[in-house]
Amino acid sequence: MENDIHALLEIGENQEIEFKGAGGGLPKNVWDTYSSFANTNGGVIILGIEEKGDALTVVEIDVDQLLKNLWSTLNNSQKISRNILTEDDVQVLEYSQKKIIKISVRRAYRDEKPIYIGFSPLTGSYKRNYEGDYKCTEREVRAMLADQSDETQDRKILEDFTIEDLDIESVNGYPSRLAALKPHHPFLAKKIPNFLIEIGAWGRNRQSKKEGLTAAGLLMFGKERAITDEFPQYFLDYREYSRNEASNRWSHRIVSNDGTWAGNIYEFFFKVINRLTEDLNIPFRTVDLLRQQDTNVHIALREALANTLLHADFYGDRGIVIEKYPTSFQFSNPGSMRVSVRQAMEGGVSDPRNASLFKMFSLIGLGERAGSGIPAIVQAWNEQHWRIPEIKEEVQPDRTTLILLSMSLLPEESVSFLKSRLKERYESLEKEHILALVTAHQEKSVTNKRLQVLLDQNSQKLNKLLSFLVEQGLLLPQGKSRWMSYVLSDLFKVQIQHSEDIVQHNDELIQHNEDLTPHNNERVQHKEDSTQHNGESVQHTEEPTQHYVSEDSMLQSIAIRVNTRKRVTGSEMMGVILELCKVRALDIRTIATLINRGEATIYNHYLMKLVREQRLIRIYDKKNSAWVYAVPAEES
Asked: What confidence score (pLDDT) does residue 216 get?
C-alpha cells in the first residue's frame, strides 16, 4: 500500500488525484473537490499530504477528528446534497511513518447529479478541468438536472411549430427506407401525420390534450432554419482531410447551414456515411460463398456516426463535428456521457440522451443494438489489430469525442524506432511498458487515462507504470502537475556515443546561439581566421576540438561534487547544474549522467525551477531534435 502512495506522489496531482494538507483540520475546499470529482469522472482525495510549489510533503493530521467531521458533513443534507461514499471508500493508511486518509470518490450516476454544496445546485456545483475544481455555470447545472429525468429532451412537444417546418423530401424518404428494410412493417400502412405519431416525430399529451411536433421530429426531418429556432447552437459539420493536403485545411466539407440541402440529422447521416466508408481498404467478407458488401468496420463507422447524433445535447455549444483523416476518424458531440467511459466500453447499458431519435434510427437498422454500439466498434477495430478506440470527455463546455485510429496497435515503425534507440534494453521491458512508449511515439504523448483504455487497468496501477518509465529515463512529464501527460524522453531524440559526437553537437549549437557561453566569441573568431587564412585552417580546426575535450574534464570535475553523494540540498544541486551549463549547453540526459540522478527528478525539481527563475534558458536543437539548457549570456 505504501508503494501505491509513493506512486501517487511521484506522479503528483492530476485530473483524478488531489492532495490536501489537513494539518489544521478538514479543509473547506475538500468539498469543492468532492463535488467536482462526483460531477466529472471521479477521483482520489488524499488528506495529510500537502503540495507546496512542486514539492509534496507528509504532514501530521488528527485522523479521528478528520473522519468525524468528514462523515458528519457528508450526512448533513444542508451542507452536502448527497453522500455517495461508503465506508470502503475512506481508508486510513500509513506513509513515511505518518497516517494519511485516502478518499475514493466515484463518478455520480446521472440521477444523482449534480452533487453540490449548500442549498442550491446553481451556486454550489463544481466540476473538474485542467486547472482543478471550478464552479459550474448555470447552463452546466441545468444540463445535469435535465439528464436526471427519464423523459429525454427530444420527446418535448414544441409550441408554435407545425408540419410546415419539416422538409417534405426527408419525411417521404424515411418510409421508403423502412419499406426497403421491413416491407411488411405495420407503420407503413399509416398516413402522415399518424405515421409521424407512431415513430415519435409528432406527440400528444394525454393530460393537457396538447399535440404537436416533437423535438425529435424537428431534428430528424426539420428544415435547418426551423431547427435553429428551437436549438440556437445546432450545427452539423463533416470535414475530410486528404493525405495530399500540405496544410490542415479540409479537402471536402458538409455543413448543415449551406442552404443546398435540408440540414437535418436524417439527411446528414446518409450524406456523411458514404463519405466515411467509400475508400476503406478492408477486404470484403464472404458468408456461404456470397460476397458481403459490409464488413464489421463499415458497421462500426455507422454505429459511431449514429451514436454521435443520438447522444448529443442539441442545446449544447459547438455543434456536432465529424472528421475523417487518412489514418483516423473523430466523432464529437456536445454533452457529457450519461454513463461512465468504462461502462460505455464494456457495453450492456443503453442510456441515449435522445430516446425518440434512437427509436427512429433503430427502425431503419441504425443503432439498433442497445448498449452494444461501442463494444461493436471495439470488436471491429480489434479484428483489424488497430489501436483501441478512445473516448474523451471535456468540460467548459461539456463535450464527448470518440477517436478511431485505423493504425496498428504496435505499428512496425514505432517498434523499430524503440528498438533502435533502446537496443538490448528493449528486451527487458514488459509489454505494458512497450505499449505506453509506442503510444507516446504514435500519439505524441501518453496519459494515465489513455492507458486505462488500452490496458484495462486502474489509475493507480498505471501511475506506478508511468512512474517507473519516468524513473528509467524513458518518459518525461509534460505540462502542469494537474492533468499531466508524458512524452518520450531525450533518450529517443539524441544519442551521444563518444566525445567526437559531443564536439560536433556543441560546435553547431553554439554557432546558432551566439550568446550561450563566454567561449562563443573565440569560436566565431576561429572561423573568421580560418576563412581569411587558408594555410592555418588545419590548426584552427584542431584547436577547438582540444578545447572541447578539456570541457568534458571540466564538467566531470564540477559534477563530482554531487554525483557520489546520496543527500544533496536543492540549492547545492541547482548551483552545480548552473555551473555545468555555464561550460556549455547540455541536454537533460547528459546532465543526468553527469550528476548521477534520474531525468524526471532533474526535470521536476531543478530544471523547471531554474527556467522559471530565468537562471537557465531552454533552446531547441533542431538538428538532434532535443532541448538543451544554457545559462543566459548576462549570467555567463
From this structure: 94
Q: What's the gap between Cα 59 and its chain centre?
A: 32
Exposed (0-12), middle (13-18) or buried (19+): which is 44, by Cβ within 10 Å?
buried
Sign of CA dihedral 214, 216, 221, 224: positive
Helices 459-471 and 2-11, axial angle in degrees (round to 10): 70
Sign of CA dihedral 45, 25, 39, 89: positive
**Beta-bridge mates of residue 328:** 325, 405
Q: What pLDDT is attached to residue 141?
A: 93
Protein fold of 236-404: Heat Shock Protein 90 (3.30.565)
pTM above 0.70, yes or no: no
State the architecture of 2-148 in CATH terms.
2-Layer Sandwich (3.30)
Residue 61 CA neighbour count, 13 Å, CB half: 32
Judge whether 101 and 46 are in contact, CB under 8 Å: yes
pLDDT value for 34: 96
412-488 and 499-635 share one fold: yes
Sequence-ordered list of residues with C-beta below 8 angstroms from that of 542, at least 6 positions apart, any chain: none
Where do the domains of the chain lie?
A: 2-148, 153-230, 236-404, 412-488, 499-635
The CATH fold assigned to 499-635 is Arc Repressor Mutant, subunit A (1.10.10)
Q: Are 9 and 481 in contact (CB under 8 A)?
A: no
The CATH number of 412-488 is 1.10.10.10
pLDDT at position 540 is 42
Parallel, antiparallel, or unpaired: how do β-strands 320-325 and 236-240 relate?
parallel
| pLDDT averaged over 10-residue windows placed end to end, the chain, 636 residues | 60 75 89 94 90 76 93 94 94 86 92 93 90 88 88 88 93 92 92 90 84 94 95 94 65 92 95 86 50 74 92 91 90 88 75 89 78 80 83 87 83 84 87 88 83 74 85 80 75 51 42 43 44 43 42 82 80 90 87 83 81 82 70 68
Enumerate residues 6+ apart whose C-beta is below 8 A from 142.
none
CA 350 and chain centroid, separation: 24
What gap in Å lies between CA 269 and CA 272, rounded to an integer? 5
What does the block give as the cell for 409? 496497435
